[in-house]
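Now for a specimen:

…
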Amino acid sequence: MRSRPLVSYLGAASVGALTCLALASCASGAGAANGASSAPPSTVAGVTVGVDAAARGLVPQKYRDAGEVRVATDVPYAPFEMYASEGSTQITGVDYDLGQAVAARLGLKFTFTAQKFDGIIPAIQAGKFDAVMSAMTDKKERQAVLTFVDYSASGTGVLVAKGNPQGIKTYTDLCGQKVAVQAATNQLDLATSWQKECSAGGKGQIQLEQFPKDSDAQLAIKAGKVVAALATKPAAGYSAKTTDNGSAFEVVNDPAAPTGYQATPNGIGVNKADADLAKAVQKALQSLMDDGTYTKILAKYGVEGIAVKQATINGAVS
Protein backbone atom coordinates (compact mmCIF):
# COMPACT_ATOMS: atom_id res chain seq x y z
CA MET A 1 0.00 0.00 0.00
CA ARG A 2 2.63 2.52 1.04
CA SER A 3 5.13 1.84 -1.69
CA ARG A 4 6.92 5.15 -1.77
CA PRO A 5 10.44 5.33 -3.24
CA LEU A 6 12.75 3.35 -0.99
CA VAL A 7 15.58 5.10 0.80
CA SER A 8 18.89 3.37 1.42
CA TYR A 9 17.93 1.38 4.49
CA LEU A 10 21.29 -0.22 5.12
CA GLY A 11 23.34 2.95 5.62
CA ALA A 12 23.55 5.32 8.53
CA ALA A 13 20.68 7.75 8.95
CA SER A 14 20.02 10.94 10.83
CA VAL A 15 16.79 10.79 12.78
CA GLY A 16 15.04 13.86 14.15
CA ALA A 17 13.42 14.31 17.52
CA LEU A 18 10.45 12.04 18.11
CA THR A 19 7.37 12.90 20.12
CA CYS A 20 5.33 10.22 21.87
CA LEU A 21 1.67 10.75 21.06
CA ALA A 22 -0.29 7.78 22.36
CA LEU A 23 0.01 4.83 24.70
CA ALA A 24 -1.86 1.55 24.89
CA SER A 25 -3.99 1.03 27.96
CA CYS A 26 -2.35 -1.96 29.64
CA ALA A 27 0.00 -2.58 32.52
CA SER A 28 3.64 -3.57 32.48
CA GLY A 29 4.66 -7.22 32.27
CA ALA A 30 4.66 -8.35 35.86
CA GLY A 31 5.57 -11.99 36.35
CA ALA A 32 7.80 -11.81 33.29
CA ALA A 33 10.07 -14.60 34.42
CA ASN A 34 7.38 -17.24 33.91
CA GLY A 35 5.65 -15.54 30.98
CA ALA A 36 2.67 -14.33 33.01
CA SER A 37 1.34 -10.78 32.91
CA SER A 38 -0.76 -8.72 35.29
CA ALA A 39 -2.01 -6.49 32.45
CA PRO A 40 -5.78 -5.98 32.65
CA PRO A 41 -7.89 -6.58 29.53
CA SER A 42 -8.17 -3.71 27.06
CA THR A 43 -11.26 -2.69 25.11
CA VAL A 44 -10.62 -2.24 21.39
CA ALA A 45 -13.39 -1.58 18.84
CA GLY A 46 -15.90 -2.55 21.52
CA VAL A 47 -14.23 -5.90 22.19
CA THR A 48 -12.50 -6.91 25.42
CA VAL A 49 -9.01 -8.21 24.61
CA GLY A 50 -6.98 -10.09 27.20
CA VAL A 51 -3.57 -11.77 27.33
CA ASP A 52 -2.90 -14.85 25.22
CA ALA A 53 -0.56 -16.98 27.31
CA ALA A 54 1.01 -18.75 24.32
CA ALA A 55 1.77 -15.46 22.57
CA ARG A 56 3.00 -13.87 25.80
CA GLY A 57 5.37 -16.79 26.29
CA LEU A 58 7.14 -15.92 23.03
CA VAL A 59 7.88 -12.32 24.03
CA PRO A 60 11.64 -11.74 24.46
CA GLN A 61 12.72 -10.95 28.02
CA LYS A 62 13.86 -7.41 27.23
CA TYR A 63 10.33 -6.47 26.14
CA ARG A 64 8.79 -8.08 29.21
CA ASP A 65 11.20 -6.08 31.33
CA ALA A 66 10.45 -2.83 29.46
CA GLY A 67 6.73 -3.54 29.35
CA GLU A 68 6.41 -1.87 25.97
CA VAL A 69 7.16 -1.99 22.24
CA ARG A 70 8.02 1.35 20.63
CA VAL A 71 6.05 1.69 17.39
CA ALA A 72 6.60 4.23 14.62
CA THR A 73 3.71 5.45 12.46
CA ASP A 74 3.27 8.19 9.86
CA VAL A 75 0.20 10.27 10.71
CA PRO A 76 -2.15 11.00 9.00
CA TYR A 77 -2.84 8.26 6.47
CA ALA A 78 -6.55 7.56 6.86
CA PRO A 79 -8.02 5.17 7.72
CA PHE A 80 -4.87 3.46 8.97
CA GLU A 81 -3.48 6.22 11.14
CA MET A 82 -5.04 9.60 11.82
CA TYR A 83 -5.77 11.98 14.65
CA ALA A 84 -8.99 11.56 16.59
CA SER A 85 -10.05 15.12 15.76
CA GLU A 86 -8.65 18.34 14.36
CA GLY A 87 -6.01 19.69 16.70
CA SER A 88 -5.81 16.44 18.68
CA THR A 89 -2.60 14.48 19.26
CA GLN A 90 -4.51 11.25 20.01
CA ILE A 91 -3.85 8.70 17.28
CA THR A 92 -6.60 6.42 16.03
CA GLY A 93 -7.18 4.27 12.97
CA VAL A 94 -6.84 0.67 11.82
CA ASP A 95 -3.15 0.31 12.69
CA TYR A 96 -3.50 1.97 16.08
CA ASP A 97 -6.48 -0.14 17.14
CA LEU A 98 -4.94 -3.33 15.84
CA GLY A 99 -1.71 -2.45 17.63
CA GLN A 100 -3.58 -2.02 20.92
CA ALA A 101 -5.23 -5.41 20.47
CA VAL A 102 -1.91 -7.12 19.72
CA ALA A 103 -0.36 -5.38 22.73
CA ALA A 104 -3.17 -6.57 24.98
CA ARG A 105 -2.66 -10.14 23.78
CA LEU A 106 1.05 -9.87 24.65
CA GLY A 107 0.51 -8.21 28.02
CA LEU A 108 2.51 -5.19 26.86
CA LYS A 109 1.83 -1.64 25.81
CA PHE A 110 2.49 -0.42 22.25
CA THR A 111 3.73 3.16 22.36
CA PHE A 112 2.84 4.83 19.06
CA THR A 113 4.98 7.79 17.94
CA ALA A 114 4.62 9.96 14.84
CA GLN A 115 7.48 9.67 12.37
CA LYS A 116 7.65 10.66 8.71
CA PHE A 117 7.32 7.61 6.53
CA ASP A 118 10.68 7.83 4.77
CA GLY A 119 12.42 8.14 8.14
CA ILE A 120 10.83 5.14 9.84
CA ILE A 121 13.23 2.41 8.76
CA PRO A 122 16.34 4.52 9.42
CA ALA A 123 14.90 5.29 12.87
CA ILE A 124 14.46 1.58 13.59
CA GLN A 125 18.04 1.01 12.46
CA ALA A 126 19.17 3.75 14.83
CA GLY A 127 17.41 2.04 17.76
CA LYS A 128 14.69 4.67 18.19
CA PHE A 129 11.86 2.20 17.52
CA ASP A 130 11.25 -1.52 17.76
CA ALA A 131 8.57 -1.80 15.10
CA VAL A 132 6.46 0.01 12.53
CA MET A 133 2.70 -0.03 12.00
CA SER A 134 2.04 2.39 9.18
CA ALA A 135 0.25 0.62 6.31
CA MET A 136 3.69 -0.43 5.12
CA THR A 137 3.91 -2.72 2.11
CA ASP A 138 5.89 -5.88 2.79
CA LYS A 139 8.70 -5.90 0.19
CA LYS A 140 11.71 -8.14 -0.28
CA GLU A 141 14.01 -5.13 -0.14
CA ARG A 142 12.55 -4.00 3.17
CA GLN A 143 13.00 -7.49 4.57
CA ALA A 144 16.74 -6.79 4.68
CA VAL A 145 15.98 -4.65 7.74
CA LEU A 146 12.55 -5.74 8.98
CA THR A 147 10.67 -8.95 9.63
CA PHE A 148 7.09 -8.41 8.49
CA VAL A 149 4.05 -9.95 10.12
CA ASP A 150 1.50 -9.51 7.34
CA TYR A 151 -1.93 -8.47 8.56
CA SER A 152 -3.74 -7.35 5.40
CA ALA A 153 -3.51 -7.15 1.65
CA SER A 154 -4.68 -4.24 -0.44
CA GLY A 155 -4.88 -3.26 -4.06
CA THR A 156 -7.12 -1.10 -6.20
CA GLY A 157 -10.83 -0.89 -5.44
CA VAL A 158 -13.79 0.36 -7.46
CA LEU A 159 -16.00 2.95 -5.76
CA VAL A 160 -19.51 3.43 -7.14
CA ALA A 161 -22.69 5.24 -6.14
CA LYS A 162 -24.76 3.62 -3.39
CA GLY A 163 -26.83 0.82 -4.84
CA ASN A 164 -24.39 0.31 -7.72
CA PRO A 165 -26.88 1.56 -10.36
CA GLN A 166 -24.70 0.41 -13.27
CA GLY A 167 -24.40 -3.10 -11.87
CA ILE A 168 -20.60 -3.13 -11.99
CA LYS A 169 -19.24 -6.48 -10.82
CA THR A 170 -15.66 -6.50 -12.08
CA TYR A 171 -13.13 -4.21 -13.77
CA THR A 172 -14.14 -5.28 -17.29
CA ASP A 173 -17.57 -3.76 -16.65
CA LEU A 174 -15.78 -0.40 -16.71
CA CYS A 175 -14.95 -0.81 -20.40
CA GLY A 176 -16.73 1.85 -22.46
CA GLN A 177 -17.64 3.78 -19.30
CA LYS A 178 -16.45 7.06 -17.81
CA VAL A 179 -14.27 6.37 -14.78
CA ALA A 180 -12.56 8.82 -12.42
CA VAL A 181 -9.02 8.33 -11.21
CA GLN A 182 -6.51 10.43 -9.34
CA ALA A 183 -3.71 11.66 -11.57
CA ALA A 184 -0.20 10.17 -11.31
CA THR A 185 -1.30 7.15 -9.26
CA ASN A 186 -0.92 3.38 -9.50
CA GLN A 187 -4.65 3.31 -10.19
CA LEU A 188 -4.19 5.33 -13.37
CA ASP A 189 -1.46 2.96 -14.54
CA LEU A 190 -3.59 -0.07 -13.74
CA ALA A 191 -6.65 1.29 -15.59
CA THR A 192 -4.47 2.07 -18.59
CA SER A 193 -3.26 -1.54 -18.59
CA TRP A 194 -6.89 -2.72 -18.76
CA GLN A 195 -7.47 -0.91 -22.05
CA LYS A 196 -6.07 -3.74 -24.18
CA GLU A 197 -8.48 -6.18 -22.61
CA CYS A 198 -11.37 -3.78 -23.21
CA SER A 199 -10.42 -3.44 -26.87
CA ALA A 200 -10.00 -7.19 -27.31
CA GLY A 201 -13.45 -7.75 -25.86
CA GLY A 202 -15.02 -5.19 -28.19
CA LYS A 203 -16.40 -3.17 -25.29
CA GLY A 204 -14.62 0.09 -26.00
CA GLN A 205 -11.98 1.89 -24.01
CA ILE A 206 -12.40 3.06 -20.45
CA GLN A 207 -12.92 6.81 -20.63
CA LEU A 208 -10.56 7.94 -17.90
CA GLU A 209 -11.25 11.25 -16.19
CA GLN A 210 -8.23 12.39 -14.17
CA PHE A 211 -8.57 14.48 -11.02
CA PRO A 212 -5.98 15.96 -8.65
CA LYS A 213 -7.57 14.41 -5.53
CA ASP A 214 -9.64 11.36 -4.61
CA SER A 215 -12.28 13.69 -3.19
CA ASP A 216 -12.70 15.30 -6.63
CA ALA A 217 -13.24 11.86 -8.16
CA GLN A 218 -15.92 11.15 -5.57
CA LEU A 219 -17.71 14.40 -6.42
CA ALA A 220 -17.71 13.30 -10.06
CA ILE A 221 -19.62 10.16 -9.05
CA LYS A 222 -22.14 12.22 -7.11
CA ALA A 223 -22.62 14.55 -10.08
CA GLY A 224 -23.19 11.63 -12.44
CA LYS A 225 -20.16 12.54 -14.55
CA VAL A 226 -18.57 9.12 -14.05
CA VAL A 227 -19.92 5.68 -13.12
CA ALA A 228 -17.04 4.81 -10.80
CA ALA A 229 -13.76 5.95 -9.28
CA LEU A 230 -10.60 3.93 -8.70
CA ALA A 231 -8.71 4.20 -5.41
CA THR A 232 -6.86 1.92 -3.03
CA LYS A 233 -9.44 -0.51 -1.67
CA PRO A 234 -9.09 0.61 1.98
CA ALA A 235 -9.44 4.26 0.99
CA ALA A 236 -12.51 3.40 -1.08
CA GLY A 237 -13.97 1.40 1.81
CA TYR A 238 -13.39 4.22 4.27
CA SER A 239 -15.06 6.71 1.92
CA ALA A 240 -18.05 4.41 1.55
CA LYS A 241 -18.28 4.02 5.32
CA THR A 242 -17.99 7.69 6.25
CA THR A 243 -19.25 9.91 3.40
CA ASP A 244 -22.78 11.14 4.09
CA ASN A 245 -22.99 8.63 6.94
CA GLY A 246 -22.51 5.77 4.51
CA SER A 247 -25.33 6.72 2.16
CA ALA A 248 -23.30 7.99 -0.81
CA PHE A 249 -21.05 5.18 -2.03
CA GLU A 250 -20.28 1.48 -1.96
CA VAL A 251 -17.32 -0.62 -3.02
CA VAL A 252 -17.54 -3.28 -5.71
CA ASN A 253 -16.50 -6.62 -4.23
CA ASP A 254 -15.11 -8.80 -6.99
CA PRO A 255 -14.74 -12.42 -5.74
CA ALA A 256 -11.76 -12.80 -8.09
CA ALA A 257 -9.92 -9.98 -6.27
CA PRO A 258 -11.25 -9.88 -2.69
CA THR A 259 -8.50 -7.57 -1.44
CA GLY A 260 -8.39 -5.42 -4.57
CA TYR A 261 -6.70 -5.60 -7.96
CA GLN A 262 -2.92 -6.12 -7.90
CA ALA A 263 -3.05 -6.51 -4.12
CA THR A 264 0.16 -6.60 -2.09
CA PRO A 265 0.65 -7.64 1.56
CA ASN A 266 0.95 -5.03 4.30
CA GLY A 267 2.79 -5.85 7.47
CA ILE A 268 3.78 -4.95 10.99
CA GLY A 269 7.51 -4.47 10.54
CA VAL A 270 9.65 -5.65 13.44
CA ASN A 271 13.37 -5.00 13.77
CA LYS A 272 15.05 -7.93 12.00
CA ALA A 273 17.23 -8.54 15.05
CA ASP A 274 14.07 -9.37 17.05
CA ALA A 275 12.81 -12.48 15.27
CA ASP A 276 11.25 -13.80 18.48
CA LEU A 277 9.21 -10.62 18.91
CA ALA A 278 7.90 -11.07 15.36
CA LYS A 279 6.82 -14.62 16.25
CA ALA A 280 5.03 -13.34 19.33
CA VAL A 281 3.24 -10.66 17.29
CA GLN A 282 2.29 -13.28 14.70
CA LYS A 283 0.81 -15.54 17.40
CA ALA A 284 -1.12 -12.66 18.96
CA LEU A 285 -2.40 -11.43 15.62
CA GLN A 286 -3.55 -14.89 14.58
CA SER A 287 -5.53 -15.24 17.80
CA LEU A 288 -7.26 -11.94 16.99
CA MET A 289 -8.11 -13.24 13.53
CA ASP A 290 -9.42 -16.52 14.92
CA ASP A 291 -11.76 -14.98 17.51
CA GLY A 292 -13.17 -12.26 15.23
CA THR A 293 -11.61 -9.24 16.96
CA TYR A 294 -9.50 -8.50 13.87
CA THR A 295 -12.57 -8.43 11.63
CA LYS A 296 -14.40 -6.09 14.02
CA ILE A 297 -11.48 -3.65 13.98
CA LEU A 298 -11.44 -3.60 10.18
CA ALA A 299 -15.23 -3.21 10.06
CA LYS A 300 -15.03 -0.18 12.35
CA TYR A 301 -13.24 1.63 9.51
CA GLY A 302 -15.08 0.02 6.58
CA VAL A 303 -12.04 -1.91 5.35
CA GLU A 304 -13.15 -5.52 5.73
CA GLY A 305 -12.11 -5.98 2.10
CA ILE A 306 -8.41 -6.04 3.01
CA ALA A 307 -8.74 -8.92 5.47
CA VAL A 308 -6.54 -11.99 5.30
CA LYS A 309 -7.08 -15.30 7.09
CA GLN A 310 -3.52 -16.01 8.15
CA ALA A 311 -0.90 -13.85 9.84
CA THR A 312 2.10 -14.78 7.74
CA ILE A 313 5.74 -13.77 8.11
CA ASN A 314 7.49 -12.11 5.15
CA GLY A 315 4.80 -13.03 2.64
CA ALA A 316 5.99 -10.66 -0.11
CA VAL A 317 7.05 -12.26 -3.38
CA SER A 318 8.89 -9.21 -4.72
Remarks:
- The two ends are 14 Å apart (CA to CA).
